[in-house]
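Hi, here's the filled form for the chain we discussed.

Project: internal
Contact: R.S.
Residues: 346
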Amino acid sequence: MECWLFCPAGALCLKRRLTQVPLAVSYVLPLKWSRECDRDELGTYLNSLSHDCAEVIVVDGSDDANFQANAEAWGAFLRHVRPDSDLQYVMGKANGVTTGLRRASEEKVVIADDDVRYDRDALVKVTELLDVYDLVRPQNYFPQPMPWHAKWDTARTLINRATGADFPGTLGVRRSKFHEMGGYDGDVIFENLELIRTISSAGGRVCTASDILVARLPSTTGRFLSQRVRQAYDDFALPQRMAVWLLLLPQTLWLWRRTKPALLLVAVGAVAVAEKGRRRDGGTRVFPVTASLFAPLWLAERAFCSWLAVGRYLTGGVPYGGGKIKRAASTVKVLRGRTQSRGGPS
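And the returned structure, exactly as it came back:
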């Protein structure tokens, strides 16, 4: 924040930058690098965060070389730790999240992937909502200029916004609620949804804050392509959505054979749905109109990849960490049963 100071005579004397008071929030970043990444760019962001947050905790499950390099680059302005050795979840991120929540000194905690980029305004809004809610779910967006695949993936985001809510790479959580419910299951592929459902099933208050817009750096083209079937597999945790995607491919092929003009109407409808999501909760500020035009392409991708996901399910699950994970996420019924068995809300 900048402040202009004036001398007694009214003439302008000095401009200086005032240090803002850190927010009462712990920022937890679970990390696992197995190759060289942009350490300087992330370090600049984390250094800035260290002035906005009470503490920044990086839980680093990287290989030894990256761990040591990260410690040397960032250790002066944040807490840099290994995941706790007693945590052996298949999903390494869950080990990092749980370790970070154990270490956090603040009641309010922001969990974020290494490609998420908060500004202070978004941090303030999430922190304020954590006064009332046990979990806050903001909205990620890719900053412009976007590569083509970021617009393609944004179409998914817009359809999610129009039909419910998107799943971001960051959440705000109250530490006491997380510990009260005994953490969450890290042996599922859709771990963000698992955390949301676990808190909700334990009687926690969940806020979907689609108007809190938090930047997220786009991936490389190669990583985008490698995640297509993996993202489709997540929808096994949302059976109604998965059923829609599985029906979409045969229906599209039938229309292609019988009445091709009808496909144009389907495409126009997909663009209209995406545009509805773009205009919701101030989305037009960050989502370009061109992203809505990618909706038919994303739907075609999801329809095809959902059948590939079925194939992976039948052959043991999604490849991860040298093994396979079959479960996308626990059902609400199962999570409520676990809560009741611990004497929680019925």
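Let me know if anything looks off before we file it.
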